[in-house]
Predict the structure.
Amino acid sequence: MIPEVWEWLAGQIIVGAAIWGGIRADIRGIHHRQDQLGKSITEAHQRIDRLLEKGRHED
């Protein structure tokens, strides 16, 4: 094969690997934010439950 073709092919592989790495990092970030959101939701539900329990005892 011609050297230019090898250079082009190597460039395409490098660009593809960089794009793949970026996508993986984005997905990892999304999962991390999703986990944090789940924890926040659980904590909010616990606070609401405590407030509701407190309100029942005051009646």
The chain has a mean pLDDT of 94. The longest helix spans residues 3-58. The chain is about 95% helix and 0% strand.
